[in-house]
Structures are given as structure tokens and as C-alpha cells.
Write a structure and sequence with these properties.
Helix content is 39%, strand content 16%. By secondary structure, it is of the alpha/beta class. The chain folds into 3 domains: 114 residues, no CATH class; 213 residues, P-loop containing nucleotide triphosphate hydrolases (Rossmann fold, 3-Layer(aba) Sandwich); 69 residues. β12 and β13 form a beta hairpin. This is SF3 helicase domain-containing protein.
Amino acid sequence: MTERSVNLGVDFDLMDALRASNEKEENEPVTSLDVARNRKEFYKENKNGTKSLIHQNFAVHMINKHHIITLDDQLHIYQEGVYNSNEQIIKQLMIRELPELKQVQIREVLEYIRLTAPEMEHASPFFIACKNGIYDFNKKELLPFNPSIVTTSKINAIYDENAQCETIDKAFITIADEDFQIVQLFLEITAYMIYKQNFLDKAFLLVGHGGNGKSTLMNMWSSFIGEENVSAISLTGLSERFNVAELHHKLLNAGDDIPLQTIKDASNFKKLATGERIMAERKGQDPFTFRNYSKLIFSANDVPRWFENNNGIFDRIVIVPLNANLRNSPNRDPFLEQKITTEEARSYLFKLAIDNLDKLMKKRKFTIPDVSKQRMEEFKVDNNPILTFIAESVIHQKTTQEVYDEYRDWCESEGFRFPLTKRQFTTELKNNGFEVYVTTDAQSRKRVRKFKGKEG
């Protein structure tokens, strides 16, 4: 007897659509028999002969069958070894289970799921999901996928303890311009990416003009981590209302080619770099909070200026100068990017990441290359317009108002759009060795306040 000769109360047009859905989805297929059983179990017959959906029972069925949980104030569903926060998937699965559901019924069931789904915590960051299972970093073994291990992303690599790829080694060395301190930092950044906690409180800024390998490096890391695990919010974009949510459940934020402009608001940057709890919001949805574990890596032709000028910034960013000239090199490989994004290359990057994460855990700090230290000192001076103004100006024995007026004009000519107030400016000069004294002006005979430098 064929399937079409048996009528189990299932609309055959709906079943055709259901088959098409089953072919596309990775979830357990739903058959016409399943639908018939669901209708019998989750509908009750009313006195007038109509049938009503038992929302609570159907919601419990969805939660149990599809491993739906609440995580970071949002519903998540288990798919392909990890948990996904896309509620649209839950709605699609409801329709697969009961194809005739109306929108109002879907909303009611979804609301009940929100109220009753078990609230879970993220698994330890030592559980690292990859394409062929979950790597237990502590036990150094690969485990099968398991819904009890709550993780929301898996890297785009197969774990292979014997993986090798000489092209990756050469690429790191070439992009680092044979600076092996930078090579070691590249390895540590790769390791840091796979660990879902920002335990070293650092973000990275790759600096250098075009053709030096910044984009190649970023594309390699993005391929290794998996494009679905990468956001691309710029440094300036982190302060915009809906952008923070884009980093939720991501492993890497690759902010490519940020513009050379003043960073006015660094509050979100600091929270994201350190993994503090932060409020996020998506358009049309309720706000939620989460702890960021995506690693912040930005690239730029030069280091941008920051309105905030203190250790809150300096302690959280590592500047990585890249001076190689790959574009004009006689040894340039036009196919390098394809070679370092293969399955073999990604497996080797995973092996390197695991090996170097072990070392990073033990020393609890990054390798900071000498060129990075030097560039950071330059950045501290460049980012503090007061120091530059002092170096370029005559201040000693001038009135405080005269010097402040000169400072305002200097800020305008140099492109600093946010000059300090007079009180802040005077305080900064005092912090840099100047004193303020009161004297009588020789011409006006009025009392005036003047600066006195160290030499005075």
C-alpha cells in the first residue's frame, strides 16, 4: 500500500512541503506518521466538535525533542552539535511538527517555551567545539557532540593531532617580515581565539599600509574560525546602538581597514575587550546582556586617535606593526590565500592553537614584540595632544588665557575636534610640570594668571 493510499488526516500538499523542508534541514526528519501522532497527542476535542491545540503540552514536546534552552536571556535550540539563538528555526520546526499551525498558535507556544525552557549556563571554555566533535582541552581528547555540553559555536576545522601545513608556517613568517616575536604573537592570537573567555583583556590593532598582508591574515583567521562565527564591526562602530549584538556568540570580530578618525567613545570597546557584562539590542527585539568572548582584531593604515587618553585604552590594546611588502615582492604567491584556507591548513591552525593555548595559559600574558612596544610609546605621545602642543609651543610667562586660546587654534588646525575645557587644559599643564602664578600686568595694571615652566 502506498503512502498516498492511506489518509491519516494529513494534508498531502503540506506533506510535500514537509519533505522539501526535511531534505534541507539537519534535524531529525518528520514523517507523515509523526504529524498524525502529534495531532492526536497535542489537540483536544471540544464539546462542539472542534479541536484546540494544547499549547503547554506541545511546548514541552518541542523543548524535550529539540533541546531548547534559555541562555543569555534568549532561547537557543540545539543544532549540529551547538546551540543556535535563532527563534525562526524554532518556528520552522513547530510547523514541521504540526504543519497547519496558525501564527497566533505559534506565538502562544513560543511564549510558553520562553517561560518554561530550562535556563542553562555556557559550558566551560575548555570545551572547544570543532567540525568533528568537542575537544576537551583539559583531558586532551576529542569528545562526541553532546547537548549537555552547552556551546554556541564551533570552529571551522577538523581536529587532527597529526595535522601539518608548511604553507601556514611560511605565511606567518612572511607577513611578520621575519620578525619572530610577531610570529609568536600571531600564534598566541590564534590560540586566544578558540578560548571563549577574554581572560587577558587585550584587543589587537594590525597597522601598516596596503600590501603588507593584513587582509590575508584576517581572511585566514576568519576561514579558520568560520565565517558564521565572525562579526565585522569597526572600532568606531562599537559605540553604535545595535552593533554590539553582532558580537554575541562570535569568536572573532574582524574590523577591517578602520578609518583614521578620533574614537570618541571607548566604553563599549573596553567592556568587550575584557568580557564584562554588556547590554545589547537587536532591532525590534528586547535588549539582553552577555559577556563577550569574541576577540577584537582591527586593521588600519595608522593608529587612530582616541578621545580618551589613559591606561584604560593603553592597557587593552596591542599595536602590531606590519612592515612587509608582499604586493611588490618578487616571491609573491598570488594563490597564498587559497592555500592557507584549505581544510588541511585549518586543521593545522587548530593544532597550533591548542599547543599555544597551553603555553598562554601558563604564562598568562602575550608576547609583546619590541616593535609593538615602541609603537605604543609613540601612540601615547601622538594620542595626547597636550604633549605635542607643549613640545611645539612657547608657554612660559604667558597668561593662561593666551595659552588656552593658542591651544584651541592649534587643535583646530591639527584636526582635534574635541579640545579640553580651560580647566582641564590647565590641569594637564600642571600635570606636565607647569605652575600657575598670579601677577600684575605691566600695561593694564590688572591681576593676571600666568604659566611658569620648569625653567622659570
